[in-house]
Design brief:
Mean pLDDT of chain A: 97
Shape of chain A: globular
Oligomer: homodimer
Radius of gyration of chain A: 17 Å
Largest interface: A-B, 47 and 47 residues
Number of helices of chain A: 8
Strand order of the largest sheet of chain A: 3-2-1-4-5
Helix content of chain A: 55-70%
Largest sheet of chain A: 5 strands, mixed
Number of strands of chain A: 5
Order of helices and strands of chain A: EHEEEEHHHHHHH
Chain lengths: ~210, ~210
Amino acid sequence: MELYFSPLACSLATRIALYESDQPARFTRVDLSTKKTEDGGDYLAINPLGQVPVLETDEGDVLYENGAILQYVAERQPDAELVPRDGRARTRLQQWLSFLGSEIHKVVFAPLVDATSNDGARDYARSKIPSRFSRLAQHLGDREFLLDGFTVADAYLTTMLNWTALTGPDLGDWPALKAYHQRQLARPGLGRAVSEERALYFAEAKRS
Amino acid sequence: MELYFSPLACSLATRIALYESDQPARFTRVDLSTKKTEDGGDYLAINPLGQVPVLETDEGDVLYENGAILQYVAERQPDAELVPRDGRARTRLQQWLSFLGSEIHKVVFAPLVDATSNDGARDYARSKIPSRFSRLAQHLGDREFLLDGFTVADAYLTTMLNWTALTGPDLGDWPALKAYHQRQLARPGLGRAVSEERALYFAEAKRS
């Protein structure tokens, strides 16, 4: 497998899933501003929308979209149980992946991190934070995970909660969410993925 | 099963999936402005975000999110093949459901149909239309469906293409997308679902 990623972008969720399930992969870095891969290749030829992640499978399938890629990676290593085996729990996983990909990623964060956004779009995104974050906090309470055990949905949510350090809001306003975030970062596989990408991110920031 | 819906909202995709797979359900209408169900119930007690669809299963599970509800409904009636049985095709379905739920629904349409939006957010949403609609048109070409046969992803996309009549853009700018939309509307199950909700929508518009 080959994962196209950008440090600390949402593609980090797939790196977490790979580490948490002990699956090897090749990681190819993408410069999201120039849309070039680290070897100078044209990333738009791989993904016309220029977004990460893209996962190229060993069978040569080119997959887009966090929700699909995360489930694919998890299903390749069922023993790691990053997706639940039970049908009802699987439906719940799909519900959370869908909620995270739409209401949290695209409604809240996308306009806040996109340089082509504008003040109105950012205000609108911020107006959606209280209801969405409260929904998450209310569900989590003192649950350890979104479902009964650690799943790819936790990999995705943790990846986005990292962004609040740059974009706001202050997670202190949702203690259940802040505690959840800290607990996830303490996981060895997840923590290693975050540290590695953080190092890449700050090395790049220092250079430019 | 009980589907909470609002006429022509994204919950229409689930009605389409139910009709296309000949599954009975109870349909309960929600007034999205007052957040009341048709019998005067408090819809926020069912879904704190006040969005449709919600599907209550026969086992009493309350499901949110189009992506999860559509897969759940499709899997209850495997013979209708509204989700592909093959694993690789299933991953592709999840990719398209994720793309539709995030890039088309939440990035493009949500700010255009939400009364609490603002001009900046609407401009930002419109700026995303060419790349997203071209991606769809380029994939569709003269394909009949997003995948090899009709799936719940087509139910979802058709539901949103209906909205362009009110929000723009002109589908004539993407002939492959316009032709696809017309072909889907000609399907008996899908067409019946659209006609019924259109009648409910205009009866309500006339009353108010």
